């Protein structure tokens, strides 16, 4: 058979046809430079090295000074200790296989697999979706789910109404941010105001869409606060240079800093947006991850309040808020879901955004369903309510406990200083490294925090991301770690490593 | 409470702070022109009008001359008649809720919900995934699933080995294509060779990434065949104009044409790629959708054969093949899954592609699992095998029956001519419209096929896409319809409409 085919193929070409010099292969310089120059440290060199070490441990479990890799480099809760919420997964299981709804109810109940409210919610979602999660949905997302999201926002923001037509369900917040930026980055004179330090998705997107990064620095000494004076300074500076400050990115709660914005800070950001006509993208994916008496305030809520307080002054503000199922109590990273709420955009811009989203047809429908479950958890009186609450409480307590332990450990050690955890899943302590370590990193031609994080990985298996991957004030060095890995042994290991590192490099 | 907050906010600004003139809002001209000029007819004006009519029918079911909208505009099988394969959904249901695996086996078996091989496959996938579909996977996709894909390709291509490191699992084929094109479109002198007619994702992407579209025309009279002479003519023409023909898109089986490429045609395409150093993207998402004795040949298989036959001549060819879970027997559009296999790319290019994919972290993990299920269905001897085969046969037969009925209907009517269905999910008949219809469309300033498709929608509720959305030879007009809508009444309705339309406009 193969022989016949090859004979067939042989007859396709004459000798003359084949008398050509094969062309050269692609090289890096043939690629889109915007893509090749983009950087994304969260899955960069150190996590890649961690993957190699993981493979090495699989081949030979005692070849390294540690037994496993602790992935503290990425907010991926279910890779680690965090269990999915039972209610969420019961509903998803039924959505995937609606035959379950047709089984004899008593027989099904005897297995104790699915709660009544899970069956009910699955039925409602299937009705909204149109029967099957395997069909493409509306490009903006299933209308019924967008209604649930709008109801949630209305309640969260103290009654300020939200509308399903302003909601776009997305394949996670990364896809949401890149869609918005691809639309809003007009040309190389477009300025993107980005917090530094900052989750590198935004610098990578700025590179992909050829925009100018306009960094505004967060104030580490004031718990990584956002200073509107600093933002305005950057805006004015850009305008002087002929760059149009078009988009302002806010991450609240912060990544990697964990800082949570106050109402007055948000109000001041809205003022800058109103004054200079800057579109705000408010990345609020960690809105459920706030600790103690810290309170999350949405940009939308404060904007609406200002619009009510000062008629006409803030009506021009254009805001896109992002949320995600990957963080908070869901931690459903792999399910890829999220939403954008837009406020104040004209019909032209809405149409363009819709068209852009329709090119990728729709976001994953099960991910859309998880958004519904995130914003509308079981309520008191529902069969799943108690278990759901307990599961949430456990997640919250474990995260808080580990965050505090890490924070205290860092602050007990020499040469490392950490701000108090307020929110998100990360700590971003500052490293004050000895001169000898700085010289060594210079010799190796790497950043000093890369030296530290590499040594940490190679000695303990703890995988983190150097602060240079997020941006930091020149001459300062940091490390970003999640506080997701289970147990406390790794924190002790880190302590041991840190002391050895300082002993080695102490001046 | 709200009052206190508003008071707080009131104290934030001084009168001087508020003494500013609010800036103007964004207009279309402030957006990225590459996005605003992109077009995507599959969810364009006519489908949008269909959505409006659907809403109107909901409000008042007898206000229109039809009772429902027939969505023949998009290959969305599960929106219509096609049922998901039972085995797929059983496995997915377990993946979402692995507690099912811990239920007493006998008790579970009494419900007859999950087959033994479904339980086994789910366990294997969970092991490969690392325990939870809610965790981010490796950016290239779960290694074990990539191995299954590589095994499938190896077998499909007659033993030519495929490797998991060459596989990238993606959020559907659209995301795969746009990722590849964003990397390969270097600048405005990059030429994209695109078949005309063509699924408009590619023209839209060319616009998004500022590439030059280099159209090559398919030969309608020869069953929409792809002529390598035509491609080479376009290549030479582009070179003369200083445009670098960098990427050649092939859609096999074709969308919207349904044409399936022969081995010799594929070989000739490989020759052009080798001679001119053009990277080939082979969109093979309809590879399961071929009818009768038509056989699908992958670009990769033919390339490998040529490399064996003519050492040194074809080794430089760089190929990316796309597949998807949205079409074929799965039809799992809403689950968003697919893969890219790359061949011949240097390490630099691979690294850049990996980085690009890591910026969006990973594709949806359940979608990755569906890829596994697509390429490795139940085998003879497995509990699910018989049912699975029957379900596939039913899908195949129903599609073929409707395709043939539509084809015959079109060819019985005046002024419409259709090529014989070979594959994919579409027919793309040519409309030979009367002069009066052409004049009417001129008067309305719309394309003649838009006039036809709009009238079809408004009279019958049948939603199609005009040929102008896919590109067509100047002066020819077409309509693309899927053959997915259930039943045959709609085909009779279309017949009736067509006759009336011609009666109305007959010269």
TrEMBL record, chains A, B:
Gene3D superfamilies: 1.10.287.1970, Aspartate Aminotransferase, domain 1 (3.90.1150.10), Type I PLP-dependent aspartate aminotransferase-like (Major domain) (3.40.640.10). GO terms for molecular function: pyridoxal phosphate binding; transaminase activity. Its cofactor is pyridoxal 5'-phosphate. Residues 116-483 form the Aminotransferase class I/classII large domain. Keywords: Aminotransferase, Pyridoxal phosphate, Transferase. Transmembrane segments: none annotated. SUPFAM superfamilies: PLP-dependent transferases. GO terms for biological process: L-alanine catabolic process. Belongs to the class-I pyridoxal-phosphate-dependent aminotransferase family. Alanine aminotransferase subfamily. This is Glutamate pyruvate transaminase. It comes from Saccharomyces pastorianus. The lineage of its organism: Eukaryota, Fungi, Dikarya, Ascomycota, Saccharomycotina.
């Amino acid at each position: 058979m193969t022989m016949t085919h090859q004979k067939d193929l042989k007859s396709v070409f004459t000798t003359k046809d084949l008398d050509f010099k094969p062309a050269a292969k692609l090289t890096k310089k043939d690629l889109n430079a915007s893509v090749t120059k983009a950087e994304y440290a969260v899955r960069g060199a150190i996590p890649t090295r961690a993957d190699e070490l993981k493979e090495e441990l699989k081949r030979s479990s005692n070849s390294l000074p540690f037994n496993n890799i602790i992935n503290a480099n990425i907010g991926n809760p279910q890779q680690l200790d965090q269990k999915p919420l039972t209610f969420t997964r019961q509903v998803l299981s039924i959505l995937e296989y609606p035959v379950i709804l047709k089984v004899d109810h008593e027989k099904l109940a005897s297995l104790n697999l699915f709660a009544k409210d899970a069956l009910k919610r699955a039925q409602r979602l299937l009705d909204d979706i149109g029967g099957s999660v395997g069909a493409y949905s509306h490009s903006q997302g299933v209308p019924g789910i967008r209604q649930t999201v709008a109801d949630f926002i209305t309640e969260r923001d103290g009654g300020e109404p939200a509308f399903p037509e302003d909601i776009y369900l997305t394949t996670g917040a990364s896809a949401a941010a890149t869609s918005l930026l691809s639309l809003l980055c007009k040309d190389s004179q477009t300025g993107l105001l980005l917090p530094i330090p900052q989750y590198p998705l935004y610098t990578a997107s700025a590179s992909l869409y050829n925009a100018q990064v306009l960094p505004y620095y967060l104030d580490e000494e004031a718990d990584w606060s956002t200073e509107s004076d600093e933002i305005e300074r950057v805006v004015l500076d850009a305008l002087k240079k002929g760059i149009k400050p078009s988009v302002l990115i806010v991450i609240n709660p912060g990544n990697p800093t964990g800082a949570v914005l106050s109402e007055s800070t948000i109000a001041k950001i809205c003022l800058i947006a109103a004054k200079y006509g800057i579109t705000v993208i408010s990345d609020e994916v960690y809105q459920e991850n706030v600790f103690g008496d810290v309170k999350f305030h949405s940009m939308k809520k404060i904007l609406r309040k200002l619009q009510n307080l000062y008629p006409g002054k803030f009506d021009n503000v254009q805001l896109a808020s992002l949320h995600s199922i990957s963080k908070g109590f869901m931690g459903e990273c792999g399910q890829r879901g999220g939403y954008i709420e837009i406020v104040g955009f004209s019909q032209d811009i809405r149409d363009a955004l819709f068209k852009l989203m329709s090119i990728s047809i729709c976001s994953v429908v099960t991910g859309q369903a998880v958004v519904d479950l995130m914003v509308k958890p079981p309520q008191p009186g529902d069969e799943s309510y108690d278990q759901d609450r307990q599961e949430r409480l456990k997640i919250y307590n474990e995260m808080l406990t580990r965050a505090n332990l890490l924070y205290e450990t860092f602050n007990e050690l020499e040469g490392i200083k950490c701000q108090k955890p307020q929110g998100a899943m990360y700590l971003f302590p500052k490293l004050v490294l000895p001169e000898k370590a700085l010289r060594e990193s210079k010799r190796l031609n790497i950043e000093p925090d890369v030296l530290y994080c590499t040594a940490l990985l190679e000695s303990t298996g703890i995988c983190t991301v150097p602060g240079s991957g997020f941006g930091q004030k020149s001459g300062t060095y940091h490390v970003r770690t999640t506080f997701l890995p289970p147990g406390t042994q790794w924190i002790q290991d880190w302590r041991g490593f840190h002391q050895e590192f300082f002993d080695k490099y102490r001046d």
